[in-house]
């Protein structure tokens, strides 16, 4: 079994309204030191396979097809044997 | 300036409907090897401070008060000097 961790982030060139909202909220709560905030997604998946290379290929496909919107988002992932 | 990365995940004992939806979608797309899926949040913040210890205390406060719902979510963060 392989544990995969996927990070999906909004591309630097794309506006992040959610990040801006979080930044505004933190400022209004007195956290003036907060600069840029970017919000992304973090996913943990278990894959019922032991073939690391196959897992990598398949996970890339999952990211491209469903997990990330590659027009506005970047993704990266880590694999870890269990 | 300090770069903080915050990971917010749903506690293991709490149901994750979004994770289940992603799992179902992946299965229906032919990714049968996918087991459990948990979806969390990933945030990158820049903090205009150089005091690492202070940044840690303040970030903990931000997580407890706004970034994570500690009733159902866990959080962890990493700090990195820029």
TrEMBL record, chains A, B:
It catalyses: N(2)-formyl-N(1)-(5-phospho-beta-D-ribosyl)glycinamide + L-glutamine + ATP + H2O = 2-formamido-N(1)-(5-O-phospho-beta-D-ribosyl)acetamidine + L-glutamate + ADP + phosphate + H(+). Pathway: Purine metabolism; IMP biosynthesis via de novo pathway; 5-amino-1-(5-phospho-D-ribosyl)imidazole from N(2)-formyl-N(1)-(5-phospho-D-ribosyl)glycinamide: step 1/2. GO terms for molecular function: phosphoribosylformylglycinamidine synthase activity. Keywords: ATP-binding, Cytoplasm, Ligase, Nucleotide-binding, Purine biosynthesis. It is found in: Cytoplasm. Its EC number is 6.3.5.3. Its main location: cytoplasm. InterPro entries: PurS, PurS-like_sf. Belongs to the PurS family. Part of the FGAM synthase complex composed of 1 PurL, 1 PurQ and 2 PurS subunits. Part of the phosphoribosylformylglycinamidine synthase complex involved in the purines biosynthetic pathway. Catalyzes the ATP-dependent conversion of formylglycinamide ribonucleotide (FGAR) and glutamine to yield formylglycinamidine ribonucleotide (FGAM) and glutamate. The FGAM synthase complex is composed of three subunits. PurQ produces an ammonia molecule by converting glutamine to glutamate. PurL transfers the ammonia molecule to FGAR to form FGAM in an ATP-dependent manner. PANTHER family: PHOSPHORIBOSYLFORMYLGLYCINAMIDINE SYNTHASE SUBUNIT PURS. This is Phosphoribosylformylglycinamidine synthase subunit PurS. It comes from Marinicrinis lubricantis. The gene is purS.
């Amino acid at each position: 079994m392989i544990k995969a961790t996927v990070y999906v982030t909004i591309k630097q060139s794309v506006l992040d309204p959610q990040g801006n909202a979080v930044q505004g909220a933190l400022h209004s709560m007195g956290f003036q030191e907060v600069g840029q905030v970017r919000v992304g997604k973090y996913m943990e998946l278990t894959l019922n396979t032991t073939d690391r290379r196959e897992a990598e290929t398949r996970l890339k496909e999952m990211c491209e097809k469903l997990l990330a919107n590659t027009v506005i988002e970047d993704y990266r992932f880590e694999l870890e044997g269990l």
